[in-house]
Design a protein that fits this description.
By secondary structure, the protein is an alpha/beta fold. It is built from 25 helices and 25 strands. The strands form 7 sheets. It has an 8-stranded parallel beta barrel with strand order 1-2-5-11-12-13-14-17. A 6-stranded antiparallel sheet has the order 18-19-20-25-22-23. α3 (about 45-65) runs parallel beside α12 (about 255-270) and α21 (about 465-485) runs parallel beside α23.
């Protein structure tokens, strides 16, 4: 359908010939990706869907503001904008960071001072009242949570951020909506159009068949994947609704083309409000298939590719970030392989990097880290990773049995060790975390806790032990050095730049008490942030100063462009991780000591990678690589560049 000449039919819909030409050129560029993927998923229903979609796209193009259209053209001229070394991300809850959306505007100077160019405000679209999974049970995608402001406030903030060179990032929950969402309400009212937006069954026959292969996301407080709803059935009878996450979150039926159209419309509506990056929440779950885990199905990637193509026709400044916390062999498909290469999401979380950082800090051994990275397939060069030391979520020990075995470990045994270590149960542990979602059937235990508390700062301060405190600070800075030096978009979680500890007052709030992930979602300590220079020797000041130095070093190091991948180099010392980047300007070798001991590292290996001379991009110091050993201080991070390239 899109391969025929549409110009004559579509041009009358535009008042301006230049506007029409822009739209038609983009349709020509992205139309095949859109149509081909839709036909795989929807077959004969595709032609009708495309007709509806063209109406949505043309309307969105007409209503897109001139400054956003200018941003579209700028991004087309600089398609690697998300890959630049100066791209620093910051992740925060609006209310916990600044109270309201207007309050965030008042804190732009702070964000600019950190070098932030990418601001992810955690779920702020209107959720259901009461329990709402931290905002991920959305009742209205076209409204803002009332206590944070309204859609005009969101547009104003996006414009202000854009003026400061900061991109606004929002969550878009794709797998489910709140039970109270208009679509679900109409479905419960018996409307057959909207009943087909969901997976609703009259009895347990189909749910039981699916459950045989479905995992449980929240086994503690939301076991199973289906919920009986007394209003969900036909003729006012009850029905079993697919609810992967919580009983109040109804999974959407993406097998219905109308759901695709709805989300294309929603994304463009929010893009025209100024949102530049969409975090595609729960993307892995959107396609259901009997006899599987109903995750990572091929249709997921076709649907994402089609959505991306549709949005590029109207708003090519917009990027997609896949929230897919899955195995590396599955993760790479969210950035695109084979026909989808580089055409799915622009960015995906490198969750494995975060897990391996904490694993190596606990074990003081980087062999598993090295093994896991060596097994990672290469990503498309036009995509990027989102890396973080911590995020808003718990830590699940996503370590494959195959990687563990190659590193000489037992997968179950090592995961058990990490859960013990970071919950403080393991002898000699420096960490203070909380067990989240213990699954007795599998033995899995995930961990909640702030970066500083998991790194040992809370235990050290409680003990009044200066050496432990020093080690905790160094651990935190090492972890940040790894994420900042990996080559994607480093995402700083609010408060980590101040080494904020666990906030146990979450248990006093009835809305938060059942979910201990709120222990690492503290309110921003502005008094600490504004007075941090008063005593440069406090842990918060040391972390803040060290982190700012790392960010500055990253911003002046072109070798960290995300089109280049970090590749593990086999290390002769298990305490030391080596990551090599082959940039046109020369080789960069990152060297990380994951132990509290000084390491005498064999210099020949550094010399083989870099030659006789190198410069540490972090400290600006010169290294002559001629001695037999190079001494690495505890938790030392080096970003070594070939010196002759810079002379």
């Amino acid at each position: 359908m899109l391969k025929t000449d549409l110009a004559a039919r579509l041009r009358p819909a535009f008042d301006d010939d230049r506007d029409a030409e822009t739209f038609l050129l983009r349709l020509e560029r992205y139309g095949a990706d859109l149509e081909d993927s839709l036909r795989v998923v929807y077959g004969d229903a595709t032609d009708a869907l495309i007709t509806d979609l063209l109406e949505v796209l043309i309307h969105a193009h007409h209503t897109r503001a001139p400054d956003l259209k200018r941003l579209d053209e700028a991004r087309l001229l600089r398609p690697d904008w998300l890959q630049s070394p100066d791209m620093i991300g910051y992740v925060a809850y609006t209310d916990r960071f600044a109270g309201t959306l207007r309050g965030v505007q008042e804190r732009l100077e702070y964000l600019e001072g950190l070098g932030v160019k990418y601001l992810h405000l955690m779920p702020l679209l209107r959720p259901r009242e009461g329990e709402n999974d931290g905002g991920y049970a959305v009742q209205d995608y076209r409204a803002v949570r009332p206590d944070l402001g309204d859609m005009d406030d969101l547009s104003a903030l996006a414009a202000k951020l854009r003026g400061h060179g900061i991109s606004l990032v929002l969550d878009l929950v794709l797998n489910h909506v709140a039970r109270e969402h208009e679509w679900a309400a109409k479905a419960r009212g018996g409307d057959p159009v909207y009943r087909d937006y969901f997976h609703i069954y009259p009895d347990r026959t189909q749910p039981d068949a699916y459950e045989r292969t479905l995992p449980e996301v929240f086994p503690d407080f939301a076991p199973g994947n289906f919920t009986w709803d007394t209003e969900a059935g036909e003729d006012g009878a009850g029905g079993w609704v697919w609810t992967t996450f919580n009983s109040y979150q109804w999974d959407l039926n993406w097998g219905n083309p109308a759901v695709f159209r709805e989300f294309a419309d929603l994304i463009l509506h929010l893009a025209n409000r100024g949102v530049e990056v969409f975090r595609l929440d729960a993307i892995a779950f959107i396609w259901k298939r009997l006899g599987t885990a109903s995750q990572n199905q091929p249709e997921v990637h076709h649907l994402t590719r089609a959505l991306r193509a549709a949005i590029r026709i109207v708003a090519p400044a917009v990027a997609f970030k896949a929230e897919a916390i899955v195995a590396p062999s599955d993760l790479i498909h969210y950035l695109g392989t084979r026909d989808h290469h580089g055409k799915v999401s622009d960015m995906a979380y490198q969750n494995s990097l975060m897990v391996q950082i904490w694993s190596s800090l606990a074990s003081r051994d980087t062999r598993l880290f090295e093994t896991a990275l060596l097994a990672f397939p290469p990503k498309p060069t036009n995509t990027t990773w989102g890396m973080y030391v911590r995020c808003h979520d718990d830590i699940g020990w996503a370590i494959s049995d195959e990687d563990a075995e190659r590193a000489g470990l037992s997968g179950p045994g090592h995961r058990h060790f990490l859960s013990d270590f970071y919950s403080g149960e393991h002898p000699g542990s420096f960490a203070r975390g909380l067990v989240f979602q213990y699954n007795p059937a599998t033995g899995d235990r995930r961990i909640s806790g702030s970066a500083a508390s998991l790194a040992g700062l809370e235990v050290a301060l409680d003990a009044g032990n200066a050496e432990w405190t020093d080690h905790a600070v160094r651990r935190l800075l090492l972890a940040h050095a790894v994420t900042l030096g990996f080559g994607g978009v480093p995402l700083l979680y609010m408060g980590d730049e101040l080494a904020l500890l666990n906030d146990y007052t979450f248990a006093d709030d009835p809305a938060h008490a059942p979910d201990n992930r709120w222990v690492h979602r503290p309110k921003m300590d502005w008094a600490l942030a504004e007075g941090i220079q008063a005593d440069p020797n406090t842990p918060a000041a040391r972390v803040n100063t060290g982190l700012r130095a790392l960010i500055a070093a990253r911003q002046r190091t072109p070798h960290l462009h995300a089109s280049i991948e970090s590749r593990a180099v086999p290390s002769p010392d298990p305490h030391v991780l080596l990551l090599r980047r082959e940039h046109p300007l020369g080789v960069m070798l990152c060297v990380y000591n994951f132990s509290e001991h000084e390491v005498a590292f064999p210099t020949y290996l550094l010399r083989d990678q870099l030659g006789e001379h190198a410069i540490d991009a972090v400290a600006g110091t010169h290294f002559t690589l001629q001695r037999a050993t190079t001494r690495l201080a505890p938790f030392r991070a080096l970003w070594l560049l070939q010196a002759e390239v810079l002379s």
